[in-house]
Amino acid sequence: MAQDITITITDREGVTHEVQAPTDMNMSIMELVRAYELAPEGTIGICGGMAMCASCQCYVLNEVPLPEKGPDEEAMLWEAFNVKENSRLGCQIHITEAIDGLAIELAPEA
Amino acid sequence: MIETDILIIGAGPTGLFAVFEAGLLKLKCHLIDALPQIGGQLAELYPKKPIYDIPGYPEVLAGDLVTNLMEQIKQFQPGFTLGETAETIEKLEDGTFIVTTNEGTKHHAKAIAIAGGLGTFEPRKPILKDLEFYEKEDRGVDYFIKDPEKYRGKNVVISGGGDSALDWSVFLTDVAASVTLVHRRNEFRGALDSVEKVQELKSLGKIKLITPGEVVGFKGSERIESVDIEVNGARMNVVTDYFIPLFGLTPKLGAIANWGLEIEKNAIKVNNALDYQTNIDGIYAIGDVNIYPGKLKLILCGFHEATLMCQSVYNRINPGKKYVLKYTTVSGIDGFDGTRKEAEKAVVKSID
Ligand SMILES: Cc1cc2nc3c(=O)[nH]c(=O)nc-3n(C[C@H](O)[C@H](O)[C@H](O)COP(=O)(O)OP(=O)(O)OC[C@H]3O[C@@H](n4cnc5c(N)ncnc54)[C@H](O)[C@@H]3O)c2cc1C
Ligand code: FES
After folding, report:
1. Neighbour-count burial for B295-321, b at 16+ CB within 10 Å, e otherwise
2. Average pLDDT, chain B
């Protein structure tokens, strides 16, 4: 069986949660936040993970290597608000063993 | 006043299918949607994406599912109030309701079905000082273009990099005195032909394109007179009558949240053991907008909930009258337009 990995997520209230994430369910960070209910329903994942709403924007807090941004993610982040150097879209980060230990903070709701 | 049996708030897949199930029970429906088109999330967010979990359709494009739903309910002649938001509700002494939209359109119904999904889609607003002042009372900031004629002969600045920013920039070149399109990067995220059209209009001098640029402030006392735009670290000022930020939409439960309904996690609590009724007798909530233990936000689940809701409304409107479940294959469908659909009868042939 595939191993779960650990992801650290700081929610919009500033509370940090260390959660276990499955690597064999084709989940994204956005879906993980929803599964653990770390943001109120309807405030994250509005476009269903299509890089079209930026509701899943998060700031990457450590050096865990992540896959490059695709053109859709890049374009959405150009249009989103509260964007920083370390911004990513949670829906575009898939949960794989390679990102074990990733720490992120949810960007404010825009 | 629009009169109907069931007033459905939300013309997404759940609301549309409810019209069919209501029609089988001879109940008339009218739908209100804040968006100018029907289809809810399917039309607004992913019309060209395939859906794989609709029973009987191994694959169907979201847009096609909406078209098919519309075809399926045509004979039940639903009414529509589109581009208006259901804002207030009043329960009359006889147990019926009056729902009024933001435009003041009144609807009188025997029962209400809220099929509002994630809520009304509201514009995503840029973070700008004084935005709130200028967005009121026609002071120059608009988030939707309802009537392009409003901009005839005016100077317009549009910002955004998606389809609506591109399409409206193109459209308004024939109407407005000048169109300036501001986008934070050089690349646009829209249909190729829209991007090419903007390119062409730019070279003809009909659209002023400012990329990579961002509107960072306003000037003007009574209303907008100009906007400040940051381009490559430098500032410029563009005289304008209107600033139209088109950064997409984000859903909010909106006015429905103040109707006295029990809300949990941004959704409306319902009695799922019975009929998806809310805590207010006669108001139902179906589809993505409701919550109950084990709720799944899927189209299929919305269809099921719509069906049970209609049965309950039938019993409410016809107390004591027993409804006998019929199969459409056997009983056929009688449309409100006088049409009748039924399966072909087998050929009766005598055998000598
Ligand atoms: C990218 C993406 C992919 C998806 N893929 C699938 C899939 O494969 N399978 C599946 O089953 N589901 C899928 N879904 C979920 C599916 O789209 C929803 O379950 C479905 O749209 C819910 O339908 P609905 O009619 O309840 O609400 P919606 O489709 O959300 O429609 C609600 C409508 O109500 C209107 N409204 C709300 N409040 C008001 C008001 N006060 N006044 C007037 N109008 C109002 C809104 O404007 C909206 O048009 C997907 C969703 C997304 C975002
Ligand atoms: S969920 Fe919409 S951009 Fe990620």
Report:
1. bebebebbbbbbbbbbbbbbebbeeee
2. 93
> Which pLDDT value is given to residue A1?
61
Cβ–Cβ under 8 Å, residues B306 and B27:
no
How far is the C-alpha of B5 from the C-alpha of B243, rounded, in Å?
42
Torsions phi, psi of B310, nearest 5?
A: -65, -40
Query: CB distance from A82 to chain B under 8 Å?
Result: yes
- Ligand 2 atom closest to A51 (CA): 3
Output the six-digit token pair for B46.
Answer: 């992913």
Going by their DSSP bridges, the two strands B242-245 and B155-159 should be labelled as parallel
Which tokens is B205 given?
Answer: 């001098």
Distance CA(A19)–CA(A33), nearest Å, equals 9
Query: pTM for the whole thing?
Result: 0.84
Residues from B contacting A (CB-CB < 8 Å) are: 41, 45-46, 49, 118-119, 124, 126-127, 160-162, 184-185, 187, 189, 247-248, 250-253, 265-267, 291
ipTM confidence score: 0.82
Query: Contact, B113 vs B286, CB < 8 A?
Result: yes
What is the position in ligand 1's atom list of the atom closest to the CA of B288? Answer: 26
Contact by Cβ (8 Å): A35, A15? no
Neighbouring C-beta atoms of residue B144, cutoff 10 Å? 14
Radius of gyration of chain A (CA): 13
